[in-house]
Amino acid sequence: MNTIPKGFPEGFLWGGATAANQLEGGYDQGGKGLSTADMMTAGTHTVPRRITTELLPGENYPSHEAVDFYHRYAEDIALFGEMGFKVFRLSIAWSRIFPNGDEAEPNEEGLAFYDRVFAELQQRGIEPLVTISHYEAPFSLTKIYNGWSDRRVIDFYVNYCETLFKRYKGIVKYWLTFNEINILTMPLGTFLAGAMIPENGMELTNPDSSTDQARFQALHHQFVASAKAVKLGHSIDPDFKIGCMIAYMCAYPLTSDPADVLLAQQKDNIGNFLCGDVHVRGQYPGFAKRYFAEKGVELLFEAEDEQILLEGTVDFYTFSYYSSVCVSADPEQEKIGGNMSMGLKNPYLKASAWEWQIDPQGLRWVLNNVYNRYRLPMMVVENGLGAVDEVEADGSIRDDYRIEYLREHIKEMKEAIIDGVDLIGYTPWGCIDLVSAGTGEMKKRYGFIHVDKDNEGQGTLNRSRKASFHWYKQVIASNGETLATDPEAAAQK
Known about the structure:
Mean pLDDT: 94
Oligomer: single chain
CATH architecture: Alpha-Beta Barrel
Structural class: alpha/beta
Largest sheet: 8 strands, parallel, barrel
CATH superfamily: Glycosidases
Number of domains: 1
Low-confidence stretches: 489-493
Helix content: 25-40%
Shape: globular
Strand content: 5-15%
Distance between the termini: 48 Å
Strand order of the largest sheet: 1-2-3-4-5-7-11-12
Radius of gyration: 21 Å
CATH topology: TIM Barrel
Number of strands: 14
């Protein structure tokens, strides 16, 4: 009873995370169809990405080449192996397997590509963690069905899952059904997560891009699809571990005013626990009913939906965590950015160049907050610092700011484990530089591995090791015990 963990458990899954649409490229190769991500233009911190319904000549679509993992996967996986990765989180591009999304039979050439990727990972002793749908639905589903607004897409998704589960039985153990599924609780999720055409403009960040009714109905369809996939996966291979993935929106009350405290709780409920509860508990929470009533949302349920949700609960819980914000009932407070959301400035925190507030202790709070509610194994599957990296004359990249960010978050994960949280893995976001989902930039870099490419799509695509590469290698080798910067390693290219 008095024994407490002293640190990261034996067998902890250290690694890194990516997404196909931000990494792979090869958008028109190997039989792949167009995805929703392929229709999004480049943007910047101040200029929003745009959605086009046709490919426009001369327009920069960053996903088309991304960082060319499609041709360089062996080189990249070798670098992951050099760092000592135990796990690599990647997504499969749905439109590489089913180009239009609604075909009966898969594209064999697309499956063969992932056969080769998984073989490389196996050779390096790296466990794949596969996200089945990560912001890249086949664009044909958008054109014909308006994406997840149409219930028929559930069956297309389940057919896709069945293909993957049968093909990769015995090869892939860990699966995530949807990336950051709770983004559909916000207007930004309309196209990005829901594959639906926005109603009021084609900018990705348009705040009035859809009705609550459309988004929450699409979210319900994804809940049903996820639950069906979990049940199907377990029937195909009882050893599968199938989890959910939430973009955790950590929001503190700005003051001790009860109105601020209540608002923070409401943000946590709708932004985070609505999706977590359906995935883990198999039913909508009570607070959702009031929220839907006040928003005029009337969800269309089929007779079997409640039972499907109850029978398709997940095996583990994963989430992204980058920053925190504050909330207040006072509308005059200063706003600041965050992952997919805006909030209020916290006077106790510093912020990145993209105005994401850096809050390592918030990660410990989130881990405890979620684990105390669900008591499931957890993974932090996205966490990292987007920053501008400078390449020195000798080719080195001294990203000490990234090391500091990650070090402090790893310290807080260790504290959460000592608190009693069952944390089993950590995959920092963008372990190799890739295209930003929110802005379409290359300038906003997260990786341990530098990719020579700029915002305009120019560069050699050559890979090189940053100082953080060598630092993370020693973190993994020591199972999270050696967190100091190694001056000699940091000085290497």
